[in-house]
Design goal:
Layout (H helix, E strand, L loop, with lengths): L14 H8 L2 H26 L5 H23 L9 H24 L2 H8 L2 H12 L6 H18 L8 H23 L5 H22 L7 H26 L2 H4 L5 H14 L5 H23 L3
Helix pairs in contact: 2-4, 2-10, 2-12, 3-4, 3-9, 3-10, 4-5, 4-8, 4-9, 5-12, 5-13, 6-7, 6-8, 7-13
């Protein structure tokens, strides 16, 4: 049963808070997830708008550096003594994979239409199915294998290998989805001993240490609104993660999870109105196939049938 959103004792709730808590838990979860998806879409807009002037390495540094600053209250509350870990090698492996994936995502967002880049990101659950079999030795049913294969057909529709020309950034996007899937499966493996604040702490500290040198090498001094966007990439990503965490804390995964698909709509709208990008029929077809297969996989996992 999902946990209810906590309230502070001895403090009266505001009328807005009372109305919020009266909403069904799954509806609150969907609203939290939709908010998180919107924030991630805004981050993509910032990344794409900055990509003409700033190297993805510098953008990555701001993502982790500002994210670390915004998470300091969480780390303080968790306590320094609780940050000790006996699984540092696994943290480092997971971090390296996630850093490579994050850098790849920034590159694809900068160089591909937002709708296409986002659609490729949605293939992560497909790769997760494959990776979980090899790393976690999960048993996957025939129906889930079929859904995974159908999802990869959607990826092929996006890539369109028979169209004569293939966007090389499509391969960067696929690599990013794969490496993020491996990193996410490693989180499952780590979660038996590693609480979320500890994972986030090492992830952000590692990101700062890894990207500070390359960022200094390619550094371009931001001016004006560019500072706001670069800081916003770290801040909004952190808030987006919080929205996703709250969504699955208050709602059931099989009811809440599909709401993430609204991010594709945000990406298409932002791409059209801000960057004059018009999604092709292949983008819509590939995205629809991927979304349908991943929704099935998510619901099957939530029901515990696989």
């Amino acid at each position: 049963m999902p946990a209810s959103e906590s309230t502070v004792e001895d403090k009266p709730l505001s009328p807005i808070a009372v109305l919020w808590l009266r909403l069904p838990p799954n509806l609150r979860g969907i609203l939290w997830l939709s908010l998180g998806a919107f924030l991630f879409a805004v981050v993509d807009v910032f990344v794409k708008s900055l990509g003409g002037r700033f190297d993805p390495l510098q953008i990555s540094f701001f993502r982790y550096g500002c994210g670390l600053i915004f998470l300091i209250p969480v780390f303080i509350r968790f306590g320094a003594s609780n940050m000790k870990t006996e699984r540092l090698p696994l943290h480092i492996l997971r971090m390296c994979l996630a850093f490579a994936a994050q850098l790849g995502i920034f590159i694809t967002v900068i160089h591909m239409p937002l709708a296409d880049a986002t659609a490729f990101m949605f293939s992560k659950p497909l790769f997760t199915t494959l990776v979980a079999v090899f790393i976690l030795h999960e048993v996957v049913s025939g129906r889930r294998w079929a859904a995974t294969i159908v999802g990869f057909v959607g990826v092929l529709v996006l890539v369109r290998p028979g169209a004569g020309t293939i966007d090389p950034y499509a391969f960067v996007a696929i690599f990013s989805a794969l490496t993020f899937a491996i990193a996410n499966v490693l989180i499952r493996k780590m979660s038996t001993t590693e609480p979320t604040p500890r994972i986030l702490f090492y992830y952000h500290i590692g990101g700062v240490l890894l990207f500070i040198g390359p960022a200094a090498w390619v550094w371009t001094m931001p001016v004006g609104i560019e500072w706001v966007k670069l800081i916003g990439i770290g801040g909004l990503t952190t808030l987006g993660i919080f929205g996703f965490m709250r969504a699955f804390a208050v709602g059931e995964a099989n009811a809440v999870g599909p709401a993430e698909n609204v991010r594709l709509i945000y990406a298409a709208l932002f791409g059209y109105f801000l960057f004059s990008e018009i999604p092709t029929i292949w983008t819509f077809a590939g995205a629809l196939i991927i979304v349908a297969s991943t929704v099935y996989i998510a619901r099957a996992e939530a029901r515990g049938k696989e």
